[in-house]
Structure formats: structure tokens, C-alpha cells
Amino acid sequence: MGHHTQYIHPDLKLSRFDDKFYKADVLFEQHLLVWIISGETKIVQGDQTHWFGAGDTLLFPRNQLVTVINYPKDGLPHQSAVMHLTPQRLTDFYAKNRVDIQPDPAPVFRTFGRHPLLKSCLASLIPYFELKEALSEGIVSLKIEEAITILRSIDASIDPVLANFNEPGKINLADFMEQHYQFNMPMDKFGYLTGRSLTTFKRDFKKTFQTTPQKWLTNKRLELAHYQIKEKKRRPSDVYLEVGFENLSHFGHAFKKRFGYAPGSASQQEP
């Protein structure tokens, strides 16, 4: 049971989830190329929800927030092959290939469906996980360069995404928080993504919202959950993870304290 990760190299791993679901608000420091072997993945970004299944390939750009929920399916665990596209490897690749590009300042996650070239590239990694020894650097470099070359051949707009090595700069705090409050992560990460130290983030937050980050986040998440349950007629068990809560019991307690009734009763309340 639980989560198992097998590395054959720091940049190549096989990830497996055996539980009924696994949810994480992710912020990767490197680009990740993920091929789903079995199970299902739900991705929530803002007000958009996307579902992916076995055979799909996804690219998660670095420093971009996204909620990922992995589910087993058809009696099989959720399993995926993951390739890290590190800034150093990408810098070397673009320098070697003499490509001059302008980085994309706001990349978003991408899906390539069940593209046969990406499937062939990532599926060819699976036998290496059966080896007892670590994979040689030479083979790893070849496989990662193959993946980058395929991405560039099937998506003409991918270069500005892969070549984005910039760190987040200072941005409008209110706009960012209004768009990303459902993500559950440490305050220093919110600060990092808005171009601030933790101390500066808390100070600017208090000045902007006249309250603490945690109180504001809890209230915003409860308001979104109330809307989803009451207006969209969704079940509390389908909502609490998406809005930023980690525990259904804690969500129910906080919801009742805020609105005066349990989440399951929200849809029956008068306007």
C-alpha cells in the first residue's frame, strides 16, 4: 500500500500509487515528462479540470502550480514513468543545437495524448527498471535527448517552455492569490512564486488583505466549496480536495463553523 518510487537515475523514475487516490499540489523545480502506464490522473488548474488515462503523456513545466490526483483503475495501481528535464540538460541541449529562443514567461502544463513517438521513447525505459544496477549516464543522456528531440518535433511551440530557466519575479500579490488560493502548500512557496521572501510575503499580504494568509486562504477555500456544493450540486467528498483541504473530517468541521450547517446540507439551504 502507499506510494513507491523506484529510481534508476536521479532523472528517471517509476512512480506507483496503490491507495484509492493520491492528491498533491505540486510545484516542480524541474520540467517533468510523465507517461501514465496504468490508472487515471485528474489535474485541476484554476477552474479547469482534466482527466488522463493509461498511455497519455503530460509535461509539467517548472515553477507552475497544479493539483494532481492519481487514482488506481481496473484493479491496477496508478503507475507512471517520469523523466526529469533539468535546467542543466536543457541548457546543454540548446547550446549544442544552437537554438536562440525567448523563454515563455507563463508556461502551463501540456498533454500530448498517446503520441506513438513519446510512448515508444518512455516505454523503452521500463526494462531498465528491472536491472539491479544504476543506469549509466551515457544511456540516460541519450534517452533524455531523444525525448527532448521528439517534443520539439511534435510541438513547434515547445522551445520557449523548455528553455524557461527564469526564477519568479515580484508580481501582483492580490492577483496571484486570487488565482491560486486552492493550492495547499507552505507559505514560503507562495512567497517564492510571488518573488518575495517569507517575511516580505506576510507583510505585503497583511497590507493587501488586512488579515493573515492562513485565515484568508481558509475562508476563500470554504467559499469555493460552498459554491460548488450548493450551486453546482457536487458532493462534499468530490470537492474538499480540489479546494485545498487535505482531510474530509477537518473540511466538514471548518465548513460547519463557517456557515452554520454541514456540507451535506448546503444544497438544501435557502438562497
TrEMBL record:
InterPro entries: AraC_XylS_family_regulators, ExsA-like_N, Homeodomain-like_sf, HTH-like, HTH_AraC. Gene3D superfamilies: Homeodomain-like. Coiled coil: none annotated. One of its GO terms (molecular function) is sequence-specific DNA binding. It comes from the Bacteria. Pfam families: ExsA_N, HTH_18. The keyword DNA-binding applies. The keyword Oxidoreductase does not apply. Residues 171-269 form the HTH araC/xylS-type domain. Keywords: DNA-binding, Transcription, Transcription regulation. This is Helix-turn-helix domain-containing protein.
